[in-house]
Automatic annotation (TrEMBL):
<keyword id="KW-0813">Transport</keyword>
<feature type="repeat" description="WD">
    <location>
        <begin position="346"/>
        <end position="387"/>
    </location>
</feature>
<keyword id="KW-0206">Cytoskeleton</keyword>
<dbReference type="Pfam" id="PF00400">
    <property type="entry name" value="WD40"/>
</dbReference>
<dbReference type="GO" id="GO:0051012">
    <property type="term" value="P:microtubule sliding"/>
</dbReference>
<feature type="repeat" description="WD">
    <location>
        <begin position="110"/>
        <end position="151"/>
    </location>
</feature>
<dbReference type="InterPro" id="IPR019775">
    <property type="entry name" value="WD40_repeat_CS"/>
</dbReference>
<comment type="subunit">
    <text>Self-associates. Interacts with nudE and dynein.</text>
</comment>
<keyword id="KW-0498">Mitosis</keyword>
<feature type="repeat" description="WD">
    <location>
        <begin position="197"/>
        <end position="239"/>
    </location>
</feature>
<protein>
    <recommendedName>
        <fullName>Nuclear distribution protein nudF</fullName>
    </recommendedName>
</protein>
<comment type="similarity">
    <text>Belongs to the WD repeat MDV1/CAF4 family.</text>
</comment>
<feature type="repeat" description="WD">
    <location>
        <begin position="240"/>
        <end position="281"/>
    </location>
</feature>
<comment type="similarity">
    <text>Belongs to the WD repeat LIS1/nudF family.</text>
</comment>
<dbReference type="InterPro" id="IPR020472">
    <property type="entry name" value="WD40_PAC1"/>
</dbReference>
<dbReference type="GO" id="GO:0005874">
    <property type="term" value="C:microtubule"/>
</dbReference>
<dbReference type="GO" id="GO:0005875">
    <property type="term" value="C:microtubule associated complex"/>
</dbReference>
């Protein structure tokens, strides 16, 4: 048998044994050990007192270290499994179809706000993400690195809406708040507050840029009105008054010709902005509680939604307001056509539905709610719930956004005459979403 302990270590162990047995009054065992082991007569009661408790301390230390080793081994195995999975995923990434991508676990959790998150927005070009909170601040993050870049202060009450937009080459950030104002911030000038738009009589709940005209943005308020503003002058150019109650959300079509709004009256309204006096094109009536969110479906979803609606042929992709999705406090999501006909009711959330976003590929609709989940609905399977991310946050999930497609470089102006013209690249999809929560954090899923 190989010797594990040195002579001195063995001597210390023997003395510790005698001290332990002596402390528990095992006198016969002490006598036996003294006879069989070379402890020596000079190991009297005074010396024995010095060794009392040493054996127990060593034993508990070993047990504690053993547990720590087991925990570390388990963590290493888990990380190795994740690494192997990532390697396989990386090798097959070229063959993956981004139109079928669904989120799994968060890549980053961004924490700095002191109160719940109410709104988020992606910069259209850079890897910047803005978050607004009940703590009255806006924070700018680098979502690729998961780092805080800047904190914007200016609103006097909680921030309730955010959106990036503006003229080409001069992106602005718009924010709205319970302080009755809309503010414009300039990312190219250290996010300086360049303009404050005042005119609403109550809390401003949502703000969006109109895609067709970078100078225009739209806001919705608890005062029951929708206002369209000229961002370059700060003047309100149109006011829509129809909802008799709190408007919770407003969303423009991709060409800026239509708006959909909804709120406390449990109705979503589609507005035609092409005329000088905006008119209600359709009224979507069917929810049994306040609307929290509304959104137009992208043309990529028309094929799936047309099948759900019983249409033989999907509408043309140039048509911008064919289908709408709404979410409400009745825990349901409803899909509608442009005439106000209900196509489908999606049931699955256990609490208020707070945010909706369509997958750019058109096949899926994502939703978040106060039940702390992200849910993925497959429009190709009649709106079937195909994935639920439980515990996406530690509290109510209040908002969700999809990162815009990366900007593509224009072809060179003067190409080689012998070079064949480049084919038009298919639209790219950036598989990144962000969610905000009442737990004061933003999570980025990639």
């Amino acid at each position: 048998m190989s010797v594990v302990l040195t002579t001195r270590q063995a001597e210390e162990l023997h003395k510790s044994l005698v001290a332990y047995l002596n402390s528990i009054n095992a006198s016969r065992s002490v006598e036996t050990i003294r006879e069989e082991l070379p402890i020596g007569d000079n190991f009297d009661e005074v010396a024995c007192k010095k060794y009392e408790g040493l054996l127990e301390k060593k034993w508990t230390s070993v047990a504690r270290l053993q547990r720590k080793i087991m925990d570390l081994e388990s963590k290493v195995a888990s990380l190795q499994e994740e690494l192997d999975s990532s390697s396989i995923s990386g090798r097959s990434r070229a063959n993956q179809d981004p139109t079928s991508w669904l989120p799994t676990t968060a890549r980053h959790t961004l924490s700095s706000h002191r109160d719940g998150i109410t709104a988020i927005a992606f910069h259209p070009v850079f890897s910047s993400l803005a978050s607004g909170s009940e703590d009255c601040t806006i924070k700018i993050w680098d979502w690729e690195l998961g780092e805080l870049e800047k904190t914007l202060k200016g609103h006097l009450r909680g921030v309730s809406g955010l959106d990036f937009g503006g003229q080409k080459g001069h992106t602005l950030l718009a924010s709205c708040s319970s302080d009755l104002t809309v503010k414009l911030w300039d990312p190219s000038n250290q996010y300086a507050n360049i303009r404050t738009l005042a005119g609403h009589d109550h809390s401003v709940c949502a703000v969006r840029f109109l895609p067709s005209n970078g100078n225009l943005l739209v806001s919705a308020s608890r005062d029951g009105s929708i206002r369209i503003w000229d961002a370059s002058t700060g003047y309100c150019v149109k006011t829509i008054r129809s909802h008799e109650n709190w408007i919770r959300d407003v969303y423009p079509s991709f060409d800026g010709k239509w708006l959909v709004s909804g709120g406390r009256d449990q109705i979503a309204t589609v507005w035609d902005l092409s005329s000088s006096t905006p008119e209600a094109k359709a009224t979507l009536l069917g929810h049994e509680n306040f609307l929290e969110c509304c959104i137009f479906a992208p043309p990529a979803s028309y094929g799936y939604l047309a099948t759900l609606a019983g249409l033989k042929k999907p509408p043309p992709a140039t048509s911008s307001a064919e289908f709408i999705a709404t979410g409400a406090r009745d825990k349901t999501i409803k899909l509608w056509d442009s005439r106000g006909n209900l196509i489908k009711t999606l049931v699955g959330h256990n609490n208020w539905v707070r945010g909706l976003v369509f997958h750019p590929g058109g096949k899926y609709l994502f939703s978040v709610a106060d039940d702390k989940t992200i849910r993925c609905w497959d429009l190709a399977q009649e709106g079937k719930l195909v994935k639920t991310i439980d515990g996406a946050h530690g509290h109510f999930v209040s908002c969700i956004r999809w990162a815009p497609a990366p900007a593509t470089e224009p072809p060179p102006e003067n190409g080689d005459a012998n070079t064949a013209p480049a084919k038009k690249a298919p639209p790219k999809i950036r598989c990144i979403i962000a969610t905000g929560s009442a737990d004061s954090s933003v999570r980025v899923f990639t």
